[in-house]
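Continuing from the previous page...

OK, I double-checked the sequence for (2Fe-2S)-binding protein against my notes and this is the correct one:
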Amino acid sequence: MNQHDLLNVRHASLNEAKITMAEILEKRPSNYSLDAQLYNDPHMFRIDMEEVFQKEWLFVGMTSEIPKKGDYFTVEVGQNPVLIVRDGEGNVRAFHNTCRHRGSVICTEHRGKVANLVCPYHQWTYDLKGNLLFAGTEMNKDFDMKQHGLKSAFCKTGGGFIYICLGKTEPEDGFDDYLATLDAYMEPYDVENTKLAVESTMYERANWKLVLENNRECYHCAGNHPELLNTLLEWDDTEDPRAPQDFHDHYNAQAAKWDEEGIPHKHQSFGAVQRNRIVRMPLKKGTEVMTMDGTKACTKTLGRIQNRELGSMRILHLPNSWNHMQSDHFIVFRVLPISAQESIVTTKWFVHKDAVEGVDYDTDNLRKVWDATNEQDKVLGERNQLGINSIGYQPGPYSETYEFGVINFLDWYSATVQKNLKEK
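Thanks. Re-ran it with the corrected sequence; updated structure tokens here:
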């Protein structure tokens, strides 16, 4: 079989996989887990990458990671290296991190600062807006530098969060409404005056959807997350059907204090199946933030915040992020797929930009709860993947009270993939 025939076979196999996936998603019961192949098959994974991660808005990082002109960080979305940079006018931009000469990666470090973007291979040079400035002296006379600038990706910010889309067109899903609300809800934190204190990157041998499913329920928390439950109330949000009256009484008492300080807290959701959700939840009575003993993690509170018992403002963005905003620090989580059965989970902790490590905060104390929780979730996700790979696996039912968040996630996933497949 020659190379042309091999490519045709692969193309046909992928098309068959797309037809199969569409049929599976069309027929699936919404309150059951997915067929095994949607969690472990390489063809199905490629469809996830093409129809979700290369077409939908993805969370990549925070604006305070690149506070000044020329500051950048990089991220890899599957096989797509992407560069996020602050330009000379203060705008955050996203570019495909691949040179327009012969395709080399331009920025090879995870983060840094540059005057211009210079490809290390042949020194082609671009400005911070992606315009080609220098292409050597050996190009022919008809070479047009204006036609060889960096390829940009869609990039939007809201409340200090940076989102990118690698698609040819922006998704038409009311995303700007979410960003506007995020601006309002994040205003008290003054994100531009925060800094990255520490980050962790965890490799997990599990499909990205299993990572998200695990996050979208706390059914497993009591048996697996003792550190987290020192402070966290396991109810998913203020509309959780399991929440008892004493929770609502506690929430109402805290909400009255938040109102006095002008801190937004009411549940906000966007999209038919809550693709994006913002809600402020109180922590356990007598605790301030998610530390081992519930006491402060940093001597400096964020922005204009005065009340240390601010709870946790939970921000969900499907398909790849959940976040906890607290009085003296906040934590953002990012999930990116590697293969059908591998994912990368990145966790970042932010504090006030003037806070001094070792004086105002201790990184071990700051991260201890979520380091433990992430490791516990990694074990759970990998066990889940191993069980799904078994010939004995068949989709099982979700609890509509304990696991309604998982149902919402898979409803969004199913609707998104089906819609994007039909648009071809």
